[in-house]
Amino acid sequence: MPRFQLFQRKHTGVAVDNQRKKKHALLMMICSLALAMMYSSLSSTASTFDRQLSKGFLQRFLKQPFSKQPRYYNVAHRSKVLIGIFSTSGIEKYDHRREYIRETFVNSAEEHLCSLNEYLNTIESTRANAGCEIIYTFVIGAGDSDRPTDHGDDEPLTLPYDQHGKSEPDCTYLNIRENIEQGKSATWLKYASLIGRQYGFDYVMKVDDDTVLTVPQLVQFTREELPPVPYNTRIYGGPPRPSRSANTLYAAGELYFMSLDLAYYVGNELTAQDRVDMRTAKRPVEDLDMGTYIYSHPYPIKFLNMYRMGIWTHEGRTKEEENYRMEWNTRRIEEGLPVHPDSQWKQKAKHNSIYYDSIYYDAVHHDVSNPIAKKTKVLIGIFSASGIEKYDHRREYIRETAVNPEEEHLCSLQEYMYRVDHNEKGIEIDCEIIYTFVIGGANDFERPEDHGDDEPLTLTQDRHDNSEADCTYLNIRENMEEGKLATWFKYASQIGYQYGIDYVMKADDDTVLTIPQLVQFTRDELPPVPYKTTTKNKKKFIHTQLLFAR
Fold first, then answer.
1. Domains: count for the chain
2. Which of 78, 283, 431, 508 could form a disulfide with 411 if both were Cys (CB 3.0 to 4.6 A apart)?
3. Closest Cα to residue 229, out of 279, 256, 254, 193?
4. Where a domain ends, among 282, 307, 342?
């Protein structure tokens, strides 16, 4: 695991002496005049942007790190997703397909949706939030035959019309030769990440033009699953596809999305030649190559597995208008997302014998605003066994090293629960990493290996009548593969409701952890539960599965 750094920005204040009020007033007038001039200049710049990025703009933008770019329109309280619907111009079937997509998926009656052109015009004219959560544009390669398939030169990134001289207001014309596999997606991310930073987008999505989406379900998914900036670093998601040749899990090209920082990394920090060199297949494969680009990032990627989420359809028959309309009408009348898509959440990532997954929380019956724990809290279950000398001894030297009491920001689960229970003033508990040794404590012949009955989940001691203060004794027969992990998650998620825990981790007792690096990783990479989610008339569960990809 690389070393993670936490960057902070300090703010300073200026105190003004009461005796210098006149000078203060004069200074305020000068500042007001300067701000007015800046506003005028910014409006002029925005109006000339006109969906093109000039060579000079790109050069100025790329001279500074991405994290230092100004976000002029950071007025969005909910996540905003910019969708690029990949299309082609000058071919009748694709021109016609855009027409019936406008009548279905992106029709003007859809609440919370607008075109990219409408969104930019609203912001430029009113300097206010456009109100759209889902912003779409058709993405077309509009360059002549002498243009490259992946934008890597100093020419403008977009054009005002296609190669036939035609222009549609809800289309973005990339200044590359039209293609599917050889750079169109990366060029789209390059453009989308640049305007996204300026106009307040949180995610960039790519969909095929035969992918059937419905806006209400997409809005629900966005609100419940996609945190906004700054909680969305390096998030990548879609329907998962495994690749044996690339040894990776990538998102299928029918629909995938990523946070804005990843879009910038792929489109701007990687060069066109970098992307060619990274391809793992004998020929370009758009979605597999995109996964390769993303996983080349030096920091961990959070993969959001959308398997069976049910917010889109992509089948061969949806290439035909009749079938597309039928699928859209069918999906439009469905009542939201599945309540509990079990199969989506069965896959857990494994990395160096460590699992982690966010807890499940009930959006109706539990207050997930977590007033006690303001920082992300991770509960680590260190899997052990009792009654065997080597495991008993291993716990002893783990206490002297990884979880020794001198480690800052760490405490045992039992200590943490006691402090929360006796926290009458409601102040924040300073433990960010909470650990416990997890032991199957029941009699070998009387209890199952996976807890599924009405018996208590835990015991006060192991089967040998021994008890250690920092151990959790599960009421199951000791085992490694048959159900101990599931029983641990069952117990940990239940106490997580009550004690403000955000993530649950499992580690083997021969996994070496260093707490300072783990604390830093938690602060940098694992957002807490920051929102109090509400639902209407029905009980729903919110899920977030973070897959450790590196």
1. 2
2. 431
3. 193
4. 342
